[in-house]
Design brief:
The structure holds three protein chains of three kinds. By secondary structure, chain A is of the alpha/beta class. Chain A has helices at 13-25, 61-74, 134-143, 159-170, 189-197, 255-260, 300-317, 323-340, 343-354, and strands at 2-9, 29-32, 78-80, 83-89, 93-98, 101-112, 116-118, 131-133, 151-155, 174-180, 202-204, 206-212, 219-224, 237-240, 243-246, 250-252, 264-267, 272-275, 288-290. In chain A, helix 1 (13-25) packs parallel to helix 2 (61-74), helix 1 packs parallel to helix 7 (300-317) and helix 3 (134-143) packs parallel to helix 4. The chains are: A alpha/beta, B mainly beta, C alpha+beta. At the A-C interface, strand 10, helix 5, strand 14 and helix 9 of A face helix 1 and strand 10 of C.
Chain lengths: 366, 105, 178
């Protein structure tokens, strides 16, 4: 069985930045991803990111992805693409499949950065072709350069729904409406503002009642909700649409963490069941680190920083980085994470994440 | 709309020239671009129904577009349950709208 | 009545009044000025970095709302393309006796042509007046965020923030009550 110093599972922003930090420090790292190209969700993010210079603000996600890939190459990160990590076993053994061949990889340290997947909403007609995740629409438009339809109904006004609606307009589709079940818009006001300027209605306290069509989506019926979130009969409106996008949250992809026995905590606002970690991004299993949306659904910018932190902590624990320097660098990353997790949108996330990062007492005794 | 392909884009720019390949979908020849996913080639031609379910023959198509949900599976070159959103087209590929669980040939 | 940005995506009168990036009436009367319609505390500060005159202050922590220094601001518009939220504009009330110039970010294709007559929209996307395209700036440092300047009747300068986006067919959105 092959063995490697560091294996990173998931080549999204968290996995990429973890690999870069590890490789920069001089350790050997293999970056594994099931897709044929690294970058995770970054290659769909054609919009400019928020934050400060250090957070790569003002740079489009796609360009951040290109920069990260260049750094990976520069520092000699080895990549294993089209490779699915099907299992994570005791003592850091990873089960992998590539091209119908399975094999195992032993690693001294592992970073799990498997991200999150979109949730679904069930309503009559939800299985019709044309009903898809908002991320799916984003992939099809921005990566595949195809429009799956021309008239889109977006369900959910979180940042993903607002941004993908904007990107649908940019790709030449029409967004008929954005419906939001809550009485207020979930995402940033500025995202909602530019969508409104483009003439797209945002209907709060509304949801989808049903979608129908003979073989695929042809019509959607939306309905208003009262203060108790109950549908108001008689307020139904029928829309002519051919795509219905679901933007109803994300759930961390935690299978590998469950499998190997990580300790979990249940925090709905962060996506549900999440494996816990300490300030070094180490999970409750020794030598297993976690970063990015897997540890709580946030943003690409926090994923980048968490990956960095995990990479630095690994380099430190392997002895490649020592002393005052590493202490300072980790402190800088933690400071940037705190800055990202501030304000009315970020503050809740910070409190929730810090609620389980108590220190090392709960870690397994080896 | 003439085509479902996004030929020009304010951020992504113009579509780069790619080599065309011919694929056969339900017996009909169709143009696709080398390296693109089967699902995107089909959507570009306006084909949205990829398969029918076993019991109630309900239509299904793309849902997650990243290879996780398996809603988009079709029979490709005689092999059923191929995830078309993460499988690239190849010259002469035979793609069929799958009925139920499909048949191995 | 507009309850505000969080409910409709459209800034209310009160929100605009309280917004520290929104210029005073006196400043509007003095000529070109930046209008930063940013009222939510999000960690973000590219606008501060973009202004060559130091007229935008965010400071530390970066969730602070951007504050416009009306004296320092020349209304040059360099900040417009720096905002990831596309929330910065410039207004020039002194363009002519009857017309004002509004500059805004516009990331759609096809772009209009200089000299074209266009339909100007307010924050709700409603067409409120017509205008003419004076300038379209899209240098590489804007990173694909073109800035369009249009001349519109002065009385609409506090409302107009964009133009209609290019759309192929315009069908009715709601086709029938069920």
């Amino acid at each position: 069985m092959e063995s490697v110093e560091v294996a990173v599972i998931g080549a999204g922003p968290a996995g990429l930045s973890a690999s870069i930090e590890v490789a920069k420090a001089g350790a050997e790292v293999v970056l594994i991803d099931e897709n044929n190209k690294p970058g995770g969700q970054l290659f769909k993010q054609i919009h400019k990111f928020f934050g400060s210079r250090a957070h790569m603000a003002g740079i489009r996600g796609i360009d951040i992805a290109t920069q990260l890939l260049e750094e990976c190459e520069k520092f000699g990160v080895k990549t294993l693409l089209d490779t699915v990590a099907f299992g994570l076993f005791e003592k850091n053994k990873i089960g992998l499949v590539n091209n119908d061949k399975s094999f195992f990889l032993q690693a001294k340290k592992i970073v799990l950065a498997t991200g999150a997947s979109e949730n679904v909403l069930n309503f009559p007609g939800w299985t019709l072709p044309g009903v898809m995740g908002a991320g799916a629409l984003q992939t099809i438009m921005n990566v595949n350069r195809v429009l799956p339809g021309k008239r889109i109904l977006m369900i959910g006004s979180g940042n993903v729904g607002l941004i993908v609606s904007y990107q649908a307009l940019q790709a030449g589709a029409e967004v008929i409406a954005i419906v939001e079940a809550a009485p207020q818009i979930g995402g940033y006001g500025v995202h909602a503002a530019k969508i409104r300027r483009a003439g797209v209605p945002i209907l709060v306290s509304h949801t989808v009642q049903q979608v129908f069509g003979s073989d695929c989506v042809e019509r959607a019926v939306i309905i208003r909700l009262d203060e108790k979130w109950k549908p108001i009969l008689g307020s139904e409106k029928k829309l002519k649409v051919d795509v219905v996008c679901l933007n109803v949250g994300l759930t961390p992809l935690t299978e590998l963490a469950w499998m190997v026995g990580c300790k979990f905590v249940y925090i709905p606002a962060l996506g549900g069941h999440i494996p816990i970690h300490n300030w070094n991004m180490e999970s409750s299993k020794k030598d297993l680190y976690i970063a990015g949306d897997l540890t709580g659904v946030e943003e690409a910018s926090t994923a980048l920083e968490e990956g960095r932190l995990a990479g630095l902590a690994i380099a430190e624990s392997l002895g490649y980085l020592k002393g005052e320097k590493i202490f300072k660098r980790k402190a800088e990353v933690r400071k940037r994470l705190a800055a990202l997790r501030s304000g009315p949108f970020g503050e809740t996330k910070r409190k929730l994440k810090e609620s389980f990062m108590q220190g090392d007492e709960w870690k397994e005794n080896e | 709309m003439k085509t479902f392909r996004v030929e020009d884009h304010p951020i992504l720019g113009k579509l780069k020239k790619r080599k065309k390949v011919k694929i056969v979908v339900d017996g009909k020849e169709m143009d696709a671009y080398e390296g693109e996913m089967i699902a995107s080639a089909l959507l570009a031609h306006g084909k949205k129904v990829f398969r029918y379910t076993k019991r109630y023959m309900e239509s299904r198509g793309v849902f997650c577009a990243i290879g996780r949900c398996t809603d988009c599976v079709m029979t490709v070159n005689g092999i059923p349950n191929i995830r078309t959103c993460v499988t690239s087209v190849k010259e002469g590929m035979k793609i069929e709208t799958q009925k139920g669980l499909g048949k191995w040939r | 009545m507009n309850k505000g940005l969080k409910f409709t995506g459209v800034l209310s009168e009160e929100e605009l009044k309280k917004c520290p990036g929104y210029p005073s009436e006196e400043r509007f009367k003095k000529g070109p000025v930046a209008v930063i319609e940013c009222i939510q505390e999000i960690p973000c500060n590219p606008c501060e970095v973009a202004c060559p005159f130091g007229a935008i202050k965010v400071g530390d922590p970066i969730i602070n709302l951007p504050v416009l220094d009306e004296e320092k601001c020349k209304g040059c518009g360099l900040c417009i393309s720096s905002c990831p939220g596309l929330a910065i504009f410039t207004v020039d009330m002194l363009y002519s006796k009857t017309k004002a110039v509004v500059s805004f970010p516009f990331e759609y294709l096809p772009l209009p042509k200089v000299g074209n007559e266009i339909e100007a929209v307010n924050r709700e996307g409603k067409i409120v007046t017509t205008g003419r395209v004076l300038k379209i700036k899209n240098p590489s440092k804007n990173d694909r965020t073109p800035v369009i300047s249009i001349a519109i009747p002065k009385e609409w300068a506090r409302e107009v923030r964009s133009i209609t986006i290019p759309q192929e067919e315009k069908e009715e959105r709601i086709i029938e009550r069920s």
